[in-house]
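Lecture notes, unit on protein representations.

Consider one protein chain, 222 amino acids long.
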Amino acid sequence: MSRGVPEQESLDRKILTRGELLVEGRVPEMFFREMIAALKLTDSVQVRTFGDISKDNLQTYLEIFTAKAAFKERVKYMGIIRDAEGNTAEPAFQSVRAALVGAKLVAPAGMGRFEGEPLAAGVFILPNCFDSGMLETLCLQAAQEAEQTMGPKLLPCVDEFFACLERSGRKPANPQKARFAGYALAQDVVDPQLGRAAQQGKIPWASPSFNLLNEFLRQFAQ
């Protein structure tokens, strides 16, 4: 891995906790650091990015990361989170399992739980270990839930904007990411991405949409 890229930087950081959470990309890395802080788990888990979602890339990262002396001495729990993308969660889960097996690590039989000893591994496929989608999908669900109980209601305005664009013949390549970007901009997040929105306190962490993911992350503190 080349120096200066996010995954190399994450490999170079000191291992300080008994739990390590690996996520795909720099933006999810920023997001999950804030989520871990919101759950008061910063003493139990560190967040790192393994880069893109390809099986070979993840396997290479795992082989390098788990070979570190500090990892072998300290880490007891390792979680991996990635998006389902356009398919259901199962193909993404099997890709992560293949990377774990290829790196000669324990591969859990199911999603959302940790298995193995002395190193327990767990896998969570966004948005909910079942449906297609991504982190933005989950955050939009949480925002919609929050807007049902408190104001202001911004998502209808965002949807009206994209409906206007579509009538003009313009449609975003990734509607979920674009919709979340619109939601973030409506909350004065100038850099409209998940990581920045999380850093600025614009994610409704208390939403029930996050319950399943919260349960997975709290296993780090067992």
